[in-house]
Every structure is written in structure tokens, then in C-alpha cells.
Amino acid sequence: MENLALIDSFSEFKDDKRIDRVTLMAILEDVFRNALKKKYGSDDNFDIIINPDKGDLEIWRNRIVVADGEVEDDNQEIELSAARKIEPDFEVGEDVSEEVKLIDLGRRAILALRQNLISKIHEHDNTNLYKQFKELVGDIYTAEVHHIRHRQIVLLDDEGNEIILPKEKQIPSDFFRKGENVRGVIESVELRGNKPMIIMSRTAPEFLEKLFEQEIPEVFDGLITVKKVVRIPGEKAKVAVDSYDDRIDPVGACVGMKGSRIHGIVRELGNENIDVINYTNNNQLYVTRALSPARITSIKLDDEKKRAEVYLKPEEVSKAIGKGGFNIRLAGQLTGYEIDVYREGVEEDVELAEFSDEIEAWVIEEFKRIGLDTAKSVLERDVQDLVKITDLEEETIEEVVRILKEEFED
After folding, report:
1. Is the pTM of this model over 0.90?
2. Where does the Transcription factor NusA N-terminal domain lie (predicted)?
């Protein structure tokens, strides 16, 4: 039969799309049967023989021979005289097989057929791609920077699959050039129309967890378990680890000698500061560890309200809170407790403005001018020193001190 462009492309589809023989033949048969239904009303009596490797396809229509003038369905039946033109010794009641040429379907049908075939191949390819990457969600993946846009980076993997790394999924310090390899986790796969949209993330906690698996053999082997990861991407992270083997120090194994094991992970994350702590079921101890590097003096937990009151020496407070409040925020996320920090041994201070009914406003403003805006800050200074550095009379200062002392004595 004629080797039309449609047939010539069978092998091309098979090679380009890597479709197995059985699937390709099923797609081809489905496409042709749809075309036959449109042309003849039914495809039940057609045999389709496909050899995709050679690009051969044959279509045979099977009909029953009936007497001349008795045809009720010309798709299922053929007159005796017409049958004998095919083979002169046919008789009524016998089956006739007649080859249908592609050209018989009509030019428009052939064009539609080819378009339908291409559509089915793409649909199959997209479905397989969706399934493939759906199984990879949460796993680390590497792809090459193909195109850099304002709101996202388009990556291509070794198979030519397109992966999107949105701006909000990038670490703030990330900077990539075209052709550079990028690592991240496959965060989600969505079907947009028939095309899968594959989203990569470098900010997800799962990325840090998977990096631990890749870089630390004990985590990969299951000897150490990563219990929970919380991150402020590019700034700070806390990782709780545990081991069923008492002989293993989970934190030491993850960090390595002089930080040798965790150094590669820190570098991958744009020098993100990573605290590794031992997980425990003891909530009081867990909160204490989560607030490291601060040293806690005492702690009170309300397990029902999931609140923790933490008391520290004044010099430890800034460590507990951390730069930008990152440390205390991550400690709360890691433990699930809302953490309140208190200075140990320091009574609650009071703003000078609270004494406006007893101390004149201009006096309060004079103290504020030299940076003393709370009761404690004033009481901590010597009266004679205050006389020297303010425009206030000694009697006025002594009266202010008396009022403030009475507040704390009460």
C-alpha cells in the first residue's frame, strides 16, 4: 500500500517518544478505528494489521455476501455481483475481506487522522511524564539552567523535560547562570491542560532533609533518623535527629569532625546556619535544646496551651531570640510550643511615661533626652550623676527617685 507520511512517521514516533511497541500499536489502532467509525458508522467488522517497525499498516473490511438487491447495511454486507469482482467463485453467505486504502478515507480524514495520532502520542507522553515525576515528589533532583526569567528559572533535565524553579522557591542568595546544574526537591507536579507542570524547590524543609540523606551515611542507612526540619531559607535552620542505637551520637555524626560533614550542606544552602539537636520525647528538655545556643536557667510548660515560659540570665536572652528573632521562631516551630523569654532575677520595668500623673511631662522628657526612658534606668543611676548630666535640680531628681522607688516597693 502507499507509504503516506502518516505511515512513514511510525518509527519516528517510536524512537523520539520512547514508546514501547505494544503501546504504540494500541494508540495507532485506536486512532484508525475512530476514523473508520466516522467513515463507515462502525469498526466492528474491520481488521487492522500494524507493523510499526517497518511503517506498514493494512486495513481489511469483512462483509457477508448477499443476493443482489438485498443489501441492508452496505458496511456489513456486499452484493454477490460486487463480491465476484473481487473473487469470481464467491457464493451467498460467504465472508469477503477487502482491503481499505488510506486514500479511500479521503484527504481531510487523513489529515485529521495524523493530527489525532500526534495528539494521542503527546497525551501518552505527558501522562507518563506526570506519573514519573509524581513518584519523585519530595526527592532531590538535578537539572540544568536553560532559561532565566524574572519570576522563575526554567530547567531542563537529561531527558529534555522542563522543570520550573519559581523565584519564591529559591534561596535569597541563589544566583545561577545558563548551563549551570541546580539541585532541589521536586515539590509538586500539576497538570495544566494536558501538560504536566513540574515545580522544584530549594526552600522546602524536605530539601535540607534529603541533603542530610545524601551527605551523611548514617542517615542514608537509617541508623540516624531526621525527626523534623524547620528553616528560614538562607538564614537559619534547626534539625532534630535521633538514633535507635545508643552507641551513636546523632548530632556528632551529622556535624562531623570540625563540621566537615555538614559543611557541604551549608554551602549548598547559601551558608544557611544549621543547628542540629538531639530529639527527645521530654518536652521540657526538647524546648531547652531547641533554644540553643542559649543556656536556659529554668522553664515552665503549659502542655494544654502549648506555651513555654523560659527564664534566662540577661546575657543569654539575645542568644535565645537570635538575629531577627530567627532562633526563637524556629525553636517554636520545631517543638510546637509558643515560647516566651524572661530575664531571670530582673523585675519588670515600667516606662517613665506611666508616671505622667505624678511627674511633670517636661521632667520625663529631660530624662528621655539622655536615654533614660524607664524607671529602672533612672534608679540605676546615682543622683549626683543625674544632676550633672541633666538640667534638673537635685530636689526634683530626688522626688522622681522617691516616686519610682515607691512603685517597686508596692
Report:
1. no
2. 6-125
